[in-house]
Amino acid sequence: MFKIGFIGAGNMAQAMIKGWSHLDREQVQQMVYARHSATAVAEKLHIQAVPDMETLAQESDMIILATPPTALADIAHQIRSVVAYAKNKIVVSIMGGISLEMLQAAFGDQTKLVRALPNVNVAVDEGYIAMAAGQTLTPDEKGAVFAILAELGRVEEYPEAQFGAVSALAGSGPAFIAGFVQALIGAGQQAGLENETSSKLVQQTIQGTLQKMATEEITPLELAHQVMTPGGSTAAGWDVMQERDIDQMMDAVIQATMKKNAEFE
């Protein structure tokens, strides 16, 4: 049995636990340690709560660090002796702003380390996960981590220098997309639709649009031009988006997100 242990039980940890819940429980077991919330989260998500970090590290094959970065020193103090020379344990950090170099300094040069950046969509196995592997992992070990993360969605390797941009687009992106969806729903209400009707209409339109682009392998602009007729109603709305400079707005959103991310590096 492959055992995954979470140190931390916040939103992202719970999203990953939910995403992996579809796996055969006779093959993959999940457990969690969190100082104040482990029991409640374990009961809610039907996994095992563990009383302390050291026990979790001893019992887990893959240890997920899912706490605020300020907890790194304490976690390292608690589990370094367990993971530093273990040949069969891999530590995966999803801590914001904590580089592989910082992890290596905290846990030792021999510890098998991976830095990962998932987004909340892993909860429904439609996530995007950026991954950077430490130098101590063998190709087989890296492949195994890649495979288990791929159960949560799409996984791609990135140099750590690009994690800030990936975080802004994939990590924060669901919030920005949700904001756009909410704005469309609101516009539908202003146009006279009931909230429930507008919500269903917009959500299906978003899902269908993304599916069409993926299935037909077309770009967003290509799809837009399929919908628009010169001088037509869609073009009139499109012109308003261009006049308000939606591209500049989104660039400012991503740049602000990256700037804040950089403060944690």
Task: Looking at this protein, list some descriptive labels.
8 strands; 8-stranded mixed β-sheet; single chain; alpha/beta; 54% helix; 265 residues
Give the topology.
Elements: E1 2-7, H1 11-20, E2 28-33, H2 38-45, E3 48-49, H3 53-59, E4 62-65, H4 72-83, E5 90-93, H5 100-107, E6 112-117, E7 127-133, H6 139-150, E8 153-157, H7 163-171, H8 173-190, H9 195-216, H10 220-227, H11 233-243, H12 246-262
Parallel strand pairs: 1-2, 1-4, 2-3, 4-5, 5-6, 7-8
Antiparallel strand pairs: 6-7
Describe the structure.
The protein is of the alpha/beta class. Helices cover 54% and strands 15% of the residues. The protein has helices spanning 11-20, 38-45, 53-59, 72-83, 100-107, 139-150, 163-171, 173-190, 195-216, 220-227, 233-243, 246-262; strands at 2-7, 28-33, 48-49, 62-65, 90-93, 112-117, 127-133, 153-157. An eight-stranded mixed beta sheet has the order 3-2-1-4-5-6-7-8, sandwiched between helices. Helix 3 (53-59) packs across helix 4, helix 7 (163-171) packs across helix 12 and helix 8 crosses helix 9. The model has no long low-confidence stretch (mean pLDDT 96).
